[in-house]
Write a structure and sequence with these properties.
CATH class of chain B: Mainly Beta
Shape of chain A: globular
Number of strands of chain A: 11
Number of strands of chain B: 11
Helix content of chain B: under 10%
Structural class of chain A: mainly beta
CATH superfamily of chain B: Immunoglobulins
Number of helices of chain A: 0
Number of domains of chain B: 1
Distance between the termini of chain A: 36 Å
Oligomer: heterodimer
């Protein structure tokens, strides 16, 4: 079990730039989730996929955010025209929906906007 | 509005004693509840869960109690160990098994003193 892998671990960028994060789930997991965590808060749901289909998007996911899971394996989360308020930890999780097992989280990508 | 509330930001206990972490929820549709533990610079790690059809679930030193009428759950750790020092998040979902989107509380930082 190699776990959920997220890259990069830390991203520093200037306001207005675009950033992309990658998540590699546990290989047999068919569901993949993105959450965002800010200081002093718990993780907040952003979106999730079952295989390559995006099943739900939170209202938190503005039109500057886009997530993909093109072949039902890894996923990318892109933020366009970054703003100060986008600074957060972006967490990815995966699960096997038929197994009644909980979501397994990666260690996250910390985004810092200068 | 906060659907899952952890009203104690921090808790300090002595090694060997019981730690009790509390969580309240407002959405009566929630039917599955989980506790995650988080160390600094790591993603949340699943600890224990409980379905709404039960009122208690036990796994080693960890026990979760659910009081549906009060919309309250608690995590008991007995005996507490210094390695238990972490932030504990309560999470809830609509749908069994933890494969649906999770709604998290803000977390409680537990410190176990040797």
């Amino acid at each position: 079990d190699t776990g959920v892998s997220q890259n990069p671990r830390h991203k520093i960028t200037k306001r207005g730039q675009n950033v992309t994060f990658r998540c590699d789930p546990i290989s047999e997991h068919n569901r993949l989730y993105w959450y965002r965590q800010t200081l002093g808060q718990g993780p907040e749901f952003l979106t999730y996929f079952q295989n390559e289909a995006q099943l739900e998007k939170s209202r938190l996911l503005s039109d500057r955010f886009s997530a993909e899971r093109p072949k039902g394996s890894f996923s990318t989360l892109e933020i366009q025209r970054t703003e100060q308020g986008d600074s957060a930890m972006y967490l990815c999780a995966s699960s096997l929906v038929t197994s009644n097992q909980p979501q397994h989280f990666g260690d996250g990508t910390r985004l810092s906007i200068l | 509005d906060q659907q899952v509330k952890q009203n104690s930001p921090s808790l300090s206990v002595q090694e060997g004693r019981i730690s009790i972490l509390n969580c309240d929820y407002t959405n009566s549709m929630f039917d599955y509840f989980l506790w995650y533990k988080k160390y600094p610079a790591e993603g949340p790690t699943f600890l224990i869960s409980i379905s709404s059809i039960k009122d208690k679930n036990e796994d080693g030193r960890f026990t979760v109690f659910l009081n549906k009428s009060a919309k309250h759950l608690s995590l008991h750790i007995v005996p507490s160990q210094p390695g238990d020092s972490a932030v504990y998040f309560c999470a809830a979902s609509v749908g069994q098994g933890g494969s649906e989107k999770l709604v998290f509380g803000k977390g409680t930082k537990l410190t176990v003193n040797p």
